[in-house]
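To make this tangible, we now present a fold written out as C-alpha coordinates:
***
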Amino acid sequence: MEYFHNHNNLREIEGKLIHDPQRFNSGISNSTRCVLVSGPVIVGAGPSGLAVAACLKENGVPSLILERSNCIASLWQLKTYDRLRLHLPKEFCELPLMPFPQHFPTYPTKSQFIDYLEDYATKFEINPVFNQTVDNAQFDQTLGFWRVRTTTTTTWSSNSNSDSNSNSNSNSNNSRGEEEAAVTTTTTEYVCRWLVVATGENAEVVMPDFKGLEEFGGPIVHTSLYKSGEVFRGKRVLVVGSGNSGMEVCLDLCHHNAMPSIVVRDTVHILPREMFGRSTFGLSMWLLKWLPITLVDRLLLIIAWLIFGDTSKLGLARPKMGPLQLKNLTGKTPVLDVGTFDKIKSGDIKLCSSIKRLMHQAVEFIDGSVENFDAIILATGYKSNVPYWLKDREMFSEEDGLPRKPFPNGWKGDYGLYAVGFTKRGLLGASMDAKRIAADIGQCWNSESRYPTSFDRSF
Protein backbone atom coordinates (compact mmCIF):
# COMPACT_ATOMS: atom_id res chain seq x y z
CA MET A 1 0.00 0.00 0.00
CA GLU A 2 1.44 3.37 -0.94
CA TYR A 3 1.93 5.94 1.79
CA PHE A 4 -0.61 8.85 1.98
CA HIS A 5 0.36 9.94 -1.51
CA ASN A 6 -2.28 12.62 -1.95
CA HIS A 7 -4.88 14.67 -0.11
CA ASN A 8 -7.74 12.42 -1.19
CA ASN A 9 -5.97 9.41 0.28
CA LEU A 10 -5.48 11.25 3.58
CA ARG A 11 -9.18 12.18 3.74
CA GLU A 12 -10.08 8.58 2.95
CA ILE A 13 -8.01 7.27 5.85
CA GLU A 14 -9.54 9.84 8.20
CA GLY A 15 -13.02 8.90 7.06
CA LYS A 16 -12.41 5.20 7.60
CA LEU A 17 -11.12 5.86 11.09
CA ILE A 18 -14.06 8.06 12.06
CA HIS A 19 -16.70 5.63 10.85
CA ASP A 20 -14.84 2.41 11.65
CA PRO A 21 -17.14 0.18 13.76
CA GLN A 22 -14.05 -1.52 15.15
CA ARG A 23 -13.39 1.63 17.18
CA PHE A 24 -16.13 0.52 19.52
CA ASN A 25 -15.34 -3.18 19.50
CA SER A 26 -11.69 -2.51 20.34
CA GLY A 27 -12.39 -0.01 23.08
CA ILE A 28 -11.70 3.05 20.90
CA SER A 29 -14.46 5.55 21.63
CA ASN A 30 -15.46 8.65 19.72
CA SER A 31 -13.74 10.70 22.41
CA THR A 32 -10.42 9.11 21.61
CA ARG A 33 -7.92 11.49 20.07
CA CYS A 34 -6.51 10.07 16.85
CA VAL A 35 -3.14 11.13 15.48
CA LEU A 36 -1.92 10.26 12.00
CA VAL A 37 1.87 9.93 12.03
CA SER A 38 3.73 10.39 8.77
CA GLY A 39 6.77 8.34 9.78
CA PRO A 40 7.39 5.42 12.12
CA VAL A 41 6.12 5.30 15.70
CA ILE A 42 8.85 4.18 18.10
CA VAL A 43 7.73 2.77 21.45
CA GLY A 44 10.37 3.49 24.08
CA ALA A 45 12.75 6.43 24.62
CA GLY A 46 15.69 4.47 25.95
CA PRO A 47 19.06 4.30 24.16
CA SER A 48 17.60 1.92 21.55
CA GLY A 49 14.68 4.20 20.68
CA LEU A 50 16.93 7.25 20.52
CA ALA A 51 19.36 5.41 18.23
CA VAL A 52 16.60 4.47 15.79
CA ALA A 53 15.19 7.99 15.74
CA ALA A 54 18.63 9.48 15.02
CA CYS A 55 19.38 6.98 12.25
CA LEU A 56 15.95 7.57 10.69
CA LYS A 57 16.55 11.33 10.70
CA GLU A 58 19.89 10.74 9.01
CA ASN A 59 17.95 8.88 6.30
CA GLY A 60 15.47 11.74 5.96
CA VAL A 61 12.64 9.96 7.77
CA PRO A 62 10.70 11.70 10.58
CA SER A 63 9.57 9.63 13.54
CA LEU A 64 7.60 9.88 16.76
CA ILE A 65 8.74 8.32 20.05
CA LEU A 66 6.18 7.34 22.69
CA GLU A 67 7.53 6.95 26.22
CA ARG A 68 5.56 5.84 29.28
CA SER A 69 7.85 7.66 31.73
CA ASN A 70 8.52 11.37 32.02
CA CYS A 71 12.11 11.30 30.73
CA ILE A 72 14.40 9.61 28.26
CA ALA A 73 16.37 6.54 29.40
CA SER A 74 14.09 6.07 32.41
CA LEU A 75 15.79 2.80 33.39
CA TRP A 76 19.12 4.62 33.70
CA GLN A 77 17.71 7.75 35.30
CA LEU A 78 15.23 6.22 37.72
CA LYS A 79 16.11 2.57 38.34
CA THR A 80 19.89 2.25 38.64
CA TYR A 81 22.23 2.45 41.62
CA ASP A 82 24.58 5.38 42.14
CA ARG A 83 27.91 3.57 41.69
CA LEU A 84 26.92 2.12 38.31
CA ARG A 85 29.33 2.54 35.41
CA LEU A 86 29.23 1.14 31.92
CA HIS A 87 30.60 -2.40 32.08
CA LEU A 88 32.23 -2.12 28.66
CA PRO A 89 34.60 0.56 27.31
CA LYS A 90 32.84 3.59 25.89
CA GLU A 91 33.77 2.81 22.27
CA PHE A 92 31.56 -0.28 22.46
CA CYS A 93 28.63 1.63 24.01
CA GLU A 94 28.30 4.73 21.85
CA LEU A 95 25.16 5.23 19.82
CA PRO A 96 25.29 5.68 16.04
CA LEU A 97 26.51 9.00 14.61
CA MET A 98 27.84 10.43 17.88
CA PRO A 99 30.87 9.22 19.90
CA PHE A 100 31.36 9.87 23.59
CA PRO A 101 33.25 13.04 24.53
CA GLN A 102 36.99 12.46 24.54
CA HIS A 103 37.34 13.61 28.15
CA PHE A 104 34.99 10.86 29.39
CA PRO A 105 36.77 7.99 31.15
CA THR A 106 37.04 4.55 29.57
CA TYR A 107 34.06 3.38 31.64
CA PRO A 108 31.65 6.35 31.93
CA THR A 109 29.66 6.81 35.13
CA LYS A 110 25.89 6.68 35.31
CA SER A 111 25.57 10.47 35.30
CA GLN A 112 28.01 10.81 32.40
CA PHE A 113 26.06 8.29 30.33
CA ILE A 114 22.79 10.09 31.05
CA ASP A 115 24.41 13.40 30.02
CA TYR A 116 25.55 11.72 26.80
CA LEU A 117 22.01 10.53 26.04
CA GLU A 118 20.54 13.97 26.77
CA ASP A 119 23.08 15.57 24.42
CA TYR A 120 22.30 12.90 21.83
CA ALA A 121 18.58 13.72 21.92
CA THR A 122 19.36 17.43 21.66
CA LYS A 123 21.75 17.04 18.74
CA PHE A 124 19.25 15.05 16.66
CA GLU A 125 16.26 17.09 17.86
CA ILE A 126 14.53 14.05 19.29
CA ASN A 127 11.46 15.07 21.29
CA PRO A 128 9.56 12.07 22.64
CA VAL A 129 5.95 12.32 23.76
CA PHE A 130 6.20 11.44 27.45
CA ASN A 131 3.71 9.84 29.85
CA GLN A 132 2.26 7.71 27.05
CA THR A 133 1.60 4.16 28.20
CA VAL A 134 0.97 1.90 25.21
CA ASP A 135 -1.94 -0.40 26.03
CA ASN A 136 -2.54 -1.91 22.63
CA ALA A 137 -0.79 -2.00 19.28
CA GLN A 138 -2.12 -4.00 16.37
CA PHE A 139 -1.98 -4.02 12.61
CA ASP A 140 -5.24 -3.09 10.90
CA GLN A 141 -5.53 -5.31 7.82
CA THR A 142 -8.26 -3.13 6.33
CA LEU A 143 -6.34 0.13 6.58
CA GLY A 144 -2.91 -1.39 6.06
CA PHE A 145 -1.59 0.60 9.03
CA TRP A 146 -0.64 0.08 12.66
CA ARG A 147 -2.97 1.42 15.34
CA VAL A 148 -1.19 2.20 18.60
CA ARG A 149 -3.38 3.10 21.56
CA THR A 150 -1.99 4.90 24.59
CA THR A 151 -3.39 6.22 27.86
CA THR A 152 -2.19 9.19 29.85
CA THR A 153 -3.38 9.66 33.42
CA THR A 154 -3.23 13.18 34.82
CA THR A 155 -3.95 14.18 38.41
CA TRP A 156 -4.84 17.81 38.92
CA SER A 157 -6.37 19.94 41.63
CA SER A 158 -8.47 23.06 41.43
CA ASN A 159 -9.80 25.61 43.87
CA SER A 160 -13.52 24.96 43.86
CA ASN A 161 -14.40 28.59 44.62
CA SER A 162 -11.48 30.42 43.08
CA ASP A 163 -13.51 31.65 40.12
CA SER A 164 -16.86 32.63 41.58
CA ASN A 165 -17.59 35.09 38.78
CA SER A 166 -17.41 32.40 36.14
CA ASN A 167 -19.33 29.83 38.13
CA SER A 168 -22.10 31.31 40.25
CA ASN A 169 -23.53 27.80 40.84
CA SER A 170 -20.44 26.47 42.60
CA ASN A 171 -21.06 24.23 45.57
CA SER A 172 -21.80 26.54 48.50
CA ASN A 173 -20.89 23.76 50.97
CA ASN A 174 -17.23 24.01 50.00
CA SER A 175 -15.31 26.58 52.03
CA ARG A 176 -13.31 29.21 50.20
CA GLY A 177 -9.89 27.93 49.18
CA GLU A 178 -10.82 24.24 49.47
CA GLU A 179 -9.14 22.20 46.74
CA GLU A 180 -10.71 19.41 44.75
CA ALA A 181 -8.53 16.75 43.15
CA ALA A 182 -9.45 15.03 39.92
CA VAL A 183 -7.91 12.31 37.80
CA THR A 184 -8.35 12.42 34.06
CA THR A 185 -7.37 9.72 31.60
CA THR A 186 -6.68 10.63 27.99
CA THR A 187 -6.73 7.96 25.31
CA THR A 188 -4.85 8.54 22.08
CA GLU A 189 -4.67 6.36 19.01
CA TYR A 190 -1.63 6.79 16.78
CA VAL A 191 -1.96 5.51 13.22
CA CYS A 192 1.28 4.77 11.39
CA ARG A 193 2.75 2.71 8.61
CA TRP A 194 5.77 1.46 10.58
CA LEU A 195 6.02 0.43 14.23
CA VAL A 196 9.38 0.09 16.00
CA VAL A 197 9.36 -1.77 19.33
CA ALA A 198 12.15 -0.26 21.43
CA THR A 199 10.99 -1.16 24.95
CA GLY A 200 13.88 -3.62 25.23
CA GLU A 201 14.70 -6.61 27.37
CA ASN A 202 14.53 -4.66 30.65
CA ALA A 203 11.05 -3.19 30.67
CA GLU A 204 9.69 -4.86 33.82
CA VAL A 205 11.37 -6.11 36.98
CA VAL A 206 11.45 -9.83 37.77
CA MET A 207 10.17 -10.47 41.31
CA PRO A 208 10.56 -14.04 42.62
CA ASP A 209 7.83 -15.44 44.83
CA PHE A 210 9.54 -16.98 47.84
CA LYS A 211 7.74 -19.10 50.37
CA GLY A 212 7.21 -17.08 53.56
CA LEU A 213 7.63 -13.74 51.81
CA GLU A 214 5.11 -12.06 54.11
CA GLU A 215 6.84 -13.42 57.23
CA PHE A 216 10.25 -11.83 56.75
CA GLY A 217 9.35 -8.47 58.29
CA GLY A 218 12.33 -6.52 56.99
CA PRO A 219 12.72 -4.55 53.74
CA ILE A 220 12.78 -6.56 50.52
CA VAL A 221 13.69 -4.38 47.54
CA HIS A 222 14.57 -4.94 43.90
CA THR A 223 17.80 -3.40 42.63
CA SER A 224 15.63 -1.04 40.56
CA LEU A 225 14.93 0.74 43.89
CA TYR A 226 18.46 0.42 45.30
CA LYS A 227 20.56 3.58 45.15
CA SER A 228 23.31 3.26 47.76
CA GLY A 229 24.45 1.02 50.57
CA GLU A 230 24.36 3.97 52.99
CA VAL A 231 20.86 3.06 54.23
CA PHE A 232 22.10 -0.48 55.02
CA ARG A 233 25.15 0.55 57.03
CA GLY A 234 25.75 -2.02 59.78
CA LYS A 235 22.96 -4.25 58.46
CA ARG A 236 23.07 -7.91 57.47
CA VAL A 237 21.89 -7.93 53.87
CA LEU A 238 21.17 -10.87 51.58
CA VAL A 239 21.56 -10.17 47.86
CA VAL A 240 19.68 -12.60 45.60
CA GLY A 241 21.30 -12.94 42.18
CA SER A 242 24.95 -13.33 41.19
CA GLY A 243 25.08 -11.40 37.92
CA ASN A 244 26.92 -8.13 37.41
CA SER A 245 24.29 -6.13 39.32
CA GLY A 246 24.24 -8.48 42.31
CA MET A 247 28.02 -8.55 42.52
CA GLU A 248 28.33 -4.75 42.30
CA VAL A 249 25.61 -4.19 44.91
CA CYS A 250 27.51 -6.48 47.28
CA LEU A 251 30.67 -4.47 46.69
CA ASP A 252 28.79 -1.22 47.31
CA LEU A 253 27.37 -2.64 50.55
CA CYS A 254 30.90 -3.51 51.69
CA HIS A 255 32.02 0.06 50.99
CA HIS A 256 29.24 1.27 53.29
CA ASN A 257 30.16 -1.12 56.12
CA ALA A 258 27.19 -3.42 55.64
CA MET A 259 27.51 -7.20 55.95
CA PRO A 260 26.41 -8.70 52.64
CA SER A 261 25.81 -12.29 51.61
CA ILE A 262 24.93 -13.34 48.07
CA VAL A 263 22.80 -16.19 46.79
CA VAL A 264 24.54 -18.10 44.00
CA ARG A 265 21.89 -20.33 42.47
CA ASP A 266 23.75 -21.37 39.33
CA THR A 267 27.17 -21.62 37.75
CA VAL A 268 28.77 -18.33 36.81
CA HIS A 269 31.72 -17.12 34.75
CA ILE A 270 33.79 -14.44 36.49
CA LEU A 271 36.30 -12.65 34.30
CA PRO A 272 38.57 -9.69 35.08
CA ARG A 273 37.27 -6.49 33.52
CA GLU A 274 40.68 -5.97 31.96
CA MET A 275 43.48 -8.26 30.77
CA PHE A 276 46.99 -7.09 29.90
CA GLY A 277 45.86 -3.46 30.14
CA ARG A 278 43.02 -3.95 27.67
CA SER A 279 39.34 -4.51 28.30
CA THR A 280 38.42 -8.19 28.33
CA PHE A 281 35.57 -7.51 25.92
CA GLY A 282 37.77 -5.56 23.50
CA LEU A 283 40.45 -8.25 23.63
CA SER A 284 37.82 -10.91 22.95
CA MET A 285 36.49 -9.04 19.93
CA TRP A 286 40.02 -8.67 18.56
CA LEU A 287 40.86 -12.36 19.08
CA LEU A 288 37.62 -13.45 17.39
CA LYS A 289 38.86 -11.87 14.17
CA TRP A 290 41.62 -14.49 14.01
CA LEU A 291 40.56 -17.43 16.16
CA PRO A 292 37.47 -19.65 16.58
CA ILE A 293 35.24 -18.86 19.54
CA THR A 294 36.10 -22.12 21.33
CA LEU A 295 39.80 -21.23 21.34
CA VAL A 296 39.14 -17.64 22.47
CA ASP A 297 37.03 -18.99 25.34
CA ARG A 298 39.85 -21.30 26.33
CA LEU A 299 42.36 -18.45 26.37
CA LEU A 300 40.02 -16.26 28.46
CA LEU A 301 39.54 -19.02 31.03
CA ILE A 302 43.28 -19.69 31.28
CA ILE A 303 43.94 -16.01 31.99
CA ALA A 304 41.04 -15.89 34.47
CA TRP A 305 42.47 -18.93 36.28
CA LEU A 306 45.89 -17.26 36.51
CA ILE A 307 44.25 -14.17 38.06
CA PHE A 308 41.54 -15.69 40.25
CA GLY A 309 42.63 -19.26 40.72
CA ASP A 310 40.04 -22.04 40.96
CA THR A 311 36.83 -20.10 41.72
CA SER A 312 34.90 -23.33 42.39
CA LYS A 313 36.82 -23.73 45.67
CA LEU A 314 35.02 -20.62 46.90
CA GLY A 315 31.62 -21.82 45.68
CA LEU A 316 31.65 -20.16 42.27
CA ALA A 317 31.59 -23.08 39.85
CA ARG A 318 31.96 -22.24 36.18
CA PRO A 319 29.59 -23.44 33.45
CA LYS A 320 30.87 -26.21 31.20
CA MET A 321 30.40 -23.95 28.19
CA GLY A 322 32.83 -21.08 27.65
CA PRO A 323 31.79 -17.49 28.44
CA LEU A 324 31.50 -16.28 24.84
CA GLN A 325 29.68 -19.38 23.63
CA LEU A 326 27.29 -19.16 26.58
CA LYS A 327 26.63 -15.49 25.84
CA ASN A 328 25.86 -16.23 22.19
CA LEU A 329 23.60 -19.18 22.98
CA THR A 330 21.66 -17.94 26.01
CA GLY A 331 22.45 -14.23 26.36
CA LYS A 332 23.88 -14.84 29.85
CA THR A 333 26.62 -12.28 30.42
CA PRO A 334 29.78 -13.20 32.34
CA VAL A 335 30.52 -11.19 35.47
CA LEU A 336 33.21 -8.60 34.80
CA ASP A 337 34.86 -8.23 38.17
CA VAL A 338 35.54 -4.74 39.56
CA GLY A 339 36.67 -5.81 43.04
CA THR A 340 33.90 -8.07 44.33
CA PHE A 341 35.95 -11.27 44.01
CA ASP A 342 38.57 -10.03 46.48
CA LYS A 343 35.77 -9.33 48.98
CA ILE A 344 34.45 -12.87 48.49
CA LYS A 345 37.94 -14.28 48.90
CA SER A 346 38.51 -12.30 52.11
CA GLY A 347 35.17 -13.39 53.56
CA ASP A 348 33.65 -9.90 53.56
CA ILE A 349 30.98 -11.26 51.20
CA LYS A 350 29.56 -14.66 52.07
CA LEU A 351 28.18 -17.06 49.44
CA CYS A 352 24.86 -18.80 50.08
CA SER A 353 22.93 -21.57 48.35
CA SER A 354 19.42 -21.21 46.95
CA ILE A 355 16.61 -20.04 49.22
CA LYS A 356 14.14 -22.60 50.56
CA ARG A 357 11.93 -20.20 52.48
CA LEU A 358 11.88 -16.92 54.36
CA MET A 359 11.28 -16.64 58.08
CA HIS A 360 11.04 -13.69 60.47
CA GLN A 361 14.24 -11.74 59.66
CA ALA A 362 15.87 -15.01 58.68
CA VAL A 363 16.33 -17.21 55.64
CA GLU A 364 16.43 -20.99 55.39
CA PHE A 365 18.54 -22.27 52.49
CA ILE A 366 18.19 -25.54 50.59
CA ASP A 367 21.31 -26.92 52.30
CA GLY A 368 19.42 -26.72 55.61
CA SER A 369 21.28 -23.76 57.05
CA VAL A 370 19.43 -20.78 58.57
CA GLU A 371 20.85 -17.28 58.82
CA ASN A 372 19.52 -13.99 60.13
CA PHE A 373 19.22 -10.94 57.85
CA ASP A 374 17.92 -7.41 58.27
CA ALA A 375 17.13 -6.84 54.58
CA ILE A 376 16.97 -8.60 51.22
CA ILE A 377 17.94 -7.06 47.88
CA LEU A 378 16.67 -8.78 44.74
CA ALA A 379 19.17 -8.62 41.88
CA THR A 380 16.85 -10.82 39.86
CA GLY A 381 16.87 -8.80 36.68
CA TYR A 382 14.25 -7.63 34.23
CA LYS A 383 12.07 -8.95 31.44
CA SER A 384 10.33 -7.77 28.28
CA ASN A 385 6.71 -6.56 28.50
CA VAL A 386 5.97 -6.77 24.76
CA PRO A 387 3.38 -9.62 24.98
CA TYR A 388 1.19 -7.46 27.22
CA TRP A 389 0.55 -4.75 24.62
CA LEU A 390 1.66 -5.86 21.15
CA LYS A 391 -1.06 -7.89 19.44
CA ASP A 392 1.35 -9.74 17.20
CA ARG A 393 2.10 -13.41 17.76
CA GLU A 394 4.49 -13.96 14.88
CA MET A 395 7.55 -11.82 15.58
CA PHE A 396 7.75 -11.96 19.39
CA SER A 397 7.58 -15.00 21.64
CA GLU A 398 4.73 -14.94 24.15
CA GLU A 399 6.93 -16.83 26.61
CA ASP A 400 9.78 -14.35 27.05
CA GLY A 401 8.72 -11.34 24.95
CA LEU A 402 11.79 -11.55 22.72
CA PRO A 403 11.98 -11.90 18.93
CA ARG A 404 11.59 -15.51 17.82
CA LYS A 405 14.41 -15.23 15.29
CA PRO A 406 17.87 -15.18 16.87
CA PHE A 407 20.43 -12.45 16.32
CA PRO A 408 21.14 -11.02 13.78
CA ASN A 409 17.75 -11.70 12.17
CA GLY A 410 15.32 -10.62 14.89
CA TRP A 411 15.05 -6.95 13.96
CA LYS A 412 12.40 -7.17 11.23
CA GLY A 413 8.90 -8.61 11.21
CA ASP A 414 5.90 -8.37 8.88
CA TYR A 415 3.73 -5.37 7.95
CA GLY A 416 6.35 -2.76 8.90
CA LEU A 417 7.06 -4.11 12.39
CA TYR A 418 10.60 -3.78 13.77
CA ALA A 419 12.45 -4.54 17.01
CA VAL A 420 15.51 -2.87 18.51
CA GLY A 421 17.24 -3.54 21.82
CA PHE A 422 16.42 -7.25 22.02
CA THR A 423 19.72 -8.75 20.84
CA LYS A 424 21.12 -9.62 24.31
CA ARG A 425 24.22 -7.81 23.10
CA GLY A 426 23.76 -4.52 24.90
CA LEU A 427 24.18 -1.12 23.33
CA LEU A 428 26.41 -2.47 20.57
CA GLY A 429 23.66 -4.82 19.37
CA ALA A 430 21.03 -2.09 19.64
CA SER A 431 23.12 0.24 17.48
CA MET A 432 23.55 -2.44 14.84
CA ASP A 433 19.81 -3.04 14.63
CA ALA A 434 19.02 0.70 14.66
CA LYS A 435 21.11 1.18 11.52
CA ARG A 436 19.43 -1.77 9.79
CA ILE A 437 15.94 -0.54 10.65
CA ALA A 438 16.61 3.03 9.51
CA ALA A 439 18.10 1.85 6.22
CA ASP A 440 15.16 -0.47 5.56
CA ILE A 441 12.47 2.13 6.32
CA GLY A 442 14.47 4.86 4.59
CA GLN A 443 14.61 2.88 1.36
CA CYS A 444 10.83 2.49 1.40
CA TRP A 445 10.24 6.11 2.42
CA ASN A 446 12.43 7.55 -0.32
CA SER A 447 11.16 5.26 -3.06
CA GLU A 448 7.46 6.01 -2.61
CA SER A 449 5.48 9.12 -3.39
CA ARG A 450 3.86 10.37 -0.20
CA TYR A 451 1.97 13.20 1.37
CA PRO A 452 4.45 16.08 1.09
CA THR A 453 4.54 17.25 4.71
CA SER A 454 4.59 15.60 8.08
CA PHE A 455 1.18 15.78 9.70
CA ASP A 456 -0.37 15.32 13.10
CA ARG A 457 -4.14 15.54 12.91
CA SER A 458 -6.65 14.86 15.64
CA PHE A 459 -10.35 14.27 15.42
